[in-house]
Amino acid sequence: MTITQEQAEAMLKADMSKYESYVNNPDYVPVTAQLTQYQFDALVSFCYNCGAGNLQTLCRGRTIPEIARHITAYNKSSGTVLAGLVRRRKAELDLFNKKEEEAMTAAEKTAFDKLVSRVEELEKITRKVPAPKWFVKEFGSEDLGGKISDPSFTLEGWRTLAVGLRVRK
Protein backbone atom coordinates (compact mmCIF):
# COMPACT_ATOMS: atom_id res chain seq x y z
CA MET A 1 0.00 0.00 0.00
CA THR A 2 1.30 3.44 -0.92
CA ILE A 3 0.03 6.69 0.54
CA THR A 4 0.81 10.29 -0.29
CA GLN A 5 2.54 12.71 2.08
CA GLU A 6 -0.80 14.49 2.47
CA GLN A 7 -2.54 11.23 3.44
CA ALA A 8 0.23 10.42 5.91
CA GLU A 9 -0.08 13.84 7.54
CA ALA A 10 -3.87 13.50 7.75
CA MET A 11 -3.49 10.08 9.40
CA LEU A 12 -0.95 11.46 11.88
CA LYS A 13 -3.22 14.41 12.67
CA ALA A 14 -6.12 12.04 13.34
CA ASP A 15 -3.89 9.88 15.57
CA MET A 16 -2.59 12.90 17.49
CA SER A 17 -6.13 13.97 18.30
CA LYS A 18 -6.65 10.67 20.11
CA TYR A 19 -3.44 11.03 22.15
CA GLU A 20 -4.15 14.68 22.92
CA SER A 21 -7.49 13.63 24.41
CA TYR A 22 -5.69 11.29 26.82
CA VAL A 23 -3.35 14.08 27.95
CA ASN A 24 -6.32 16.43 28.37
CA ASN A 25 -8.15 13.84 30.49
CA PRO A 26 -7.54 14.33 34.25
CA ASP A 27 -8.14 10.58 34.75
CA TYR A 28 -4.91 10.03 32.82
CA VAL A 29 -3.03 13.25 33.64
CA PRO A 30 -4.37 14.73 36.89
CA VAL A 31 -2.17 17.85 36.47
CA THR A 32 -3.32 18.53 32.89
CA ALA A 33 -4.67 22.01 33.74
CA GLN A 34 -1.23 23.09 34.99
CA LEU A 35 0.82 21.88 32.01
CA THR A 36 2.72 24.26 29.79
CA GLN A 37 2.34 23.79 26.04
CA TYR A 38 5.78 22.14 25.94
CA GLN A 39 4.85 19.72 28.73
CA PHE A 40 1.57 18.93 26.99
CA ASP A 41 3.39 18.29 23.70
CA ALA A 42 5.96 16.06 25.41
CA LEU A 43 3.22 13.98 27.06
CA VAL A 44 1.34 13.64 23.75
CA SER A 45 4.56 12.29 22.20
CA PHE A 46 5.05 9.99 25.19
CA CYS A 47 1.46 8.70 24.91
CA TYR A 48 1.82 8.17 21.15
CA ASN A 49 4.97 6.11 21.72
CA CYS A 50 4.20 4.34 25.01
CA GLY A 51 0.40 4.15 25.08
CA ALA A 52 -2.33 5.59 27.25
CA GLY A 53 -1.83 3.04 30.03
CA ASN A 54 1.81 4.02 30.47
CA LEU A 55 0.84 7.70 30.37
CA GLN A 56 -1.62 7.09 33.19
CA THR A 57 0.99 5.15 35.18
CA LEU A 58 3.57 7.90 34.63
CA CYS A 59 1.27 10.68 35.81
CA ARG A 60 -0.93 9.08 38.48
CA GLY A 61 -0.33 10.67 41.87
CA ARG A 62 2.66 12.69 40.66
CA THR A 63 3.44 16.37 40.49
CA ILE A 64 4.85 17.94 37.34
CA PRO A 65 8.47 17.72 38.60
CA GLU A 66 7.91 14.06 39.58
CA ILE A 67 6.56 13.28 36.12
CA ALA A 68 9.70 14.84 34.63
CA ARG A 69 11.91 12.67 36.85
CA HIS A 70 10.17 9.47 35.70
CA ILE A 71 9.78 9.99 31.93
CA THR A 72 13.19 8.51 31.14
CA ALA A 73 12.40 5.27 33.00
CA TYR A 74 10.30 4.17 30.00
CA ASN A 75 13.32 3.14 27.93
CA LYS A 76 13.00 -0.65 27.83
CA SER A 77 11.52 -3.29 25.58
CA SER A 78 11.09 -6.73 27.15
CA GLY A 79 13.29 -5.58 30.03
CA THR A 80 16.18 -4.48 27.80
CA VAL A 81 17.25 -0.83 27.62
CA LEU A 82 17.20 0.28 23.99
CA ALA A 83 19.33 3.19 22.75
CA GLY A 84 16.49 4.46 20.53
CA LEU A 85 14.09 4.58 23.47
CA VAL A 86 16.72 6.32 25.61
CA ARG A 87 17.07 9.00 22.89
CA ARG A 88 13.30 9.36 22.47
CA ARG A 89 12.64 9.73 26.22
CA LYS A 90 15.52 12.24 26.48
CA ALA A 91 13.98 14.29 23.67
CA GLU A 92 10.58 14.17 25.40
CA LEU A 93 12.18 15.16 28.71
CA ASP A 94 14.02 18.06 27.07
CA LEU A 95 10.75 19.25 25.55
CA PHE A 96 8.91 18.73 28.86
CA ASN A 97 11.49 20.86 30.70
CA LYS A 98 11.72 23.59 28.06
CA LYS A 99 10.93 26.97 29.55
CA GLU A 100 8.24 29.13 28.05
CA GLU A 101 8.48 32.88 27.97
CA GLU A 102 5.23 33.02 29.87
CA ALA A 103 3.18 29.96 30.72
CA MET A 104 -0.60 30.13 30.41
CA THR A 105 -2.64 30.43 33.54
CA ALA A 106 -5.50 27.97 34.05
CA ALA A 107 -7.97 30.68 32.98
CA GLU A 108 -5.95 31.43 29.84
CA LYS A 109 -5.75 27.72 29.01
CA THR A 110 -9.54 27.44 29.42
CA ALA A 111 -10.06 30.44 27.15
CA PHE A 112 -7.59 29.03 24.62
CA ASP A 113 -9.32 25.63 24.68
CA LYS A 114 -12.66 27.36 24.02
CA LEU A 115 -11.09 29.19 21.10
CA VAL A 116 -9.70 25.93 19.68
CA SER A 117 -13.15 24.32 20.01
CA ARG A 118 -14.73 27.24 18.17
CA VAL A 119 -12.16 27.01 15.36
CA GLU A 120 -12.83 23.28 15.05
CA GLU A 121 -16.58 23.98 14.94
CA LEU A 122 -16.07 26.56 12.20
CA GLU A 123 -13.88 24.12 10.26
CA LYS A 124 -16.69 21.56 10.37
CA ILE A 125 -19.15 24.13 9.07
CA THR A 126 -16.87 25.11 6.21
CA ARG A 127 -16.52 21.49 5.16
CA LYS A 128 -20.18 21.44 4.18
CA VAL A 129 -20.78 20.67 0.53
CA PRO A 130 -23.87 20.75 -1.67
CA ALA A 131 -25.56 17.47 -2.54
CA PRO A 132 -23.19 15.19 -4.45
CA LYS A 133 -24.27 14.15 -7.95
CA TRP A 134 -24.87 10.54 -6.84
CA PHE A 135 -27.31 11.80 -4.17
CA VAL A 136 -29.29 13.99 -6.58
CA LYS A 137 -29.38 11.17 -9.15
CA GLU A 138 -30.77 8.67 -6.61
CA PHE A 139 -33.09 10.90 -4.58
CA GLY A 140 -33.97 13.82 -6.83
CA SER A 141 -33.40 17.45 -5.85
CA GLU A 142 -30.69 18.29 -3.37
CA ASP A 143 -33.19 19.70 -0.84
CA LEU A 144 -35.70 16.86 -1.28
CA GLY A 145 -38.49 19.22 -2.30
CA GLY A 146 -37.92 21.66 0.55
CA LYS A 147 -37.89 18.97 3.27
CA ILE A 148 -34.28 19.79 4.22
CA SER A 149 -33.95 23.22 5.85
CA ASP A 150 -30.17 23.43 5.34
CA PRO A 151 -29.33 21.53 2.14
CA SER A 152 -25.58 21.46 2.75
CA PHE A 153 -23.88 18.81 4.83
CA THR A 154 -20.48 17.28 5.13
CA LEU A 155 -19.93 14.43 2.70
CA GLU A 156 -20.40 12.06 5.65
CA GLY A 157 -23.71 13.80 6.40
CA TRP A 158 -24.92 13.21 2.84
CA ARG A 159 -23.94 9.53 3.13
CA THR A 160 -25.80 9.18 6.43
CA LEU A 161 -28.88 10.87 4.99
CA ALA A 162 -28.77 8.54 1.98
CA VAL A 163 -28.65 5.49 4.24
CA GLY A 164 -31.64 6.79 6.20
CA LEU A 165 -33.60 7.47 3.03
CA ARG A 166 -32.79 4.03 1.64
CA VAL A 167 -33.98 2.39 4.85
CA ARG A 168 -37.29 4.30 4.63
CA LYS A 169 -37.90 3.13 1.04
TrEMBL record:
CDD domains: lyz_endolysin_autolysin (cd00737). Keywords: Antimicrobial, Bacteriolytic enzyme, Carbohydrate metabolism, Chitin degradation, Host cytoplasm, Polysaccharide degradation. SUPFAM superfamilies: Lysozyme-like. Signal peptide: none annotated. InterPro entries: Bacteriophage_GH24, Endolysin_autolysin, Glyco_hydro_24, Lysozyme-like_dom_sf, Lysozyme_dom_sf. One of its GO terms (molecular function) is lysozyme activity. It comes from the Eukaryota. Gene3D superfamilies: 1.10.530.40. Pfam families: Phage_lysozyme. One of its GO terms (biological process) is cell wall macromolecule catabolic process. The keyword Phosphoprotein does not apply. Defense against chitin-containing fungal pathogens. This is Lysozyme. It comes from Dorcoceras hygrometricum.
